[in-house]
Amino acid sequence: MRKFYKSVSVVLVCILSLALISCSSSKNASIALVNGEKITKEEFSYFLTSVKAQIESEQGNGSPAALAEDFWETVEIDGQKVIETAKEKALEEVVKVKVARQKAVEAGVKITSAQREDINNRIGKLIASYGKDGVDAYLGQYGLNQTLFEKQLEDSFYRQNLTEQLTESVSETDAKAFFDSKVARVKHILIMTVDQQTQEPLPAETVEAAKIKADEILEKAKSGDDFDALVAEYSEDPGSQAMPDGYYLGKGFALGQQGGMVPAFETASLELAVGAVSDIVETNYGYHIIKRYENAQSEYDANADEVLQRAKNAEFDTLLDGWKNDAKIEKNEKEYNAVK
User: Fold this and answer.
1) Closest by alpha carbon to 42, among 187, 142, 124?
2) For residue range 171-203, what is the model confidence (pLDDT) as tens digits?
3) What percent of the chain shows pLDDT beyond 90?
4) Which of 22, 86, 180, 271 has the fewest Cβ atoms within 10 angstroms?
5) 340/336 Cα distance (integer angstroms)
6) What structural domains does the chain harbor?
7) Contact 61/194 with Cβ under 8 angstroms?
């Protein structure tokens, strides 16, 4: 099921995006103030580029080109135009970055010499590839320039170092508790509604037949038929064979994998009790029937370092959410509304 992992890294999604943000006023105009510190239109546009790329990938089954030309202005999510949803998410992300850096500075956190060298090396490689005058042109297609790119790298290291400082007390015992309570082991049956190769939607009659088939399989699963046998017989997810012990996933991640699962699948999985079977869960890939299994100690042992870091990240995210909620945020409605 690797093909419907979603990205969890705003920076990485942005680097992969080819979207451009149109700005009607100066790139240094203030979108908002966070505890008195300005979020420039340039910074906000960078985060919006990233969020839009993530949404396009999810809504287009990994193929943004499949979306309608007027997608951003006509499609709605929970009664709101998708562009407004993207802008809200982008603002939330950039506020978190600002607050994390502010807290890092307050705590005396610094970027190490090795990290500074890493930043310089990354910029040096870009200059070597595109020339000093060509770096901004290259980065511009991703909503960046050299100065902003360097700042994003700095922000990442500030957050990393602050996380390590504030979560030193998170122990292996805490990590095991996190694994037991926040990580779900699931298997699923997928009946696809898109072509496996092109990711294009299947004909309407095929989709209708897929739903009927999924309902029939669900009835068998709810009646107590062996779920592993049903997976082997019916699932159209190649990952079901590649990962016979199931997926281990938490909020925003899949253990041992890059990224996480699409939101509907993740939410349904984490809400299940051990041994329970979900109702039909529909995603852009098709109809899923999910069962949650008890976590295996061997999986924890094999991924202990990652689980410990996930537990630290979760504790830090809780702190960050609190800081964000307490922050004084003053939005410049005129400039914010002008960004598309």
Assistant:
1) 142
2) 999 999 999 999 999 999 999 999 988 888 899
3) 73
4) 22
5) 9
6) 2-171+313-338 (1.10.4030), 184-294 (3.10.50.40)
7) yes
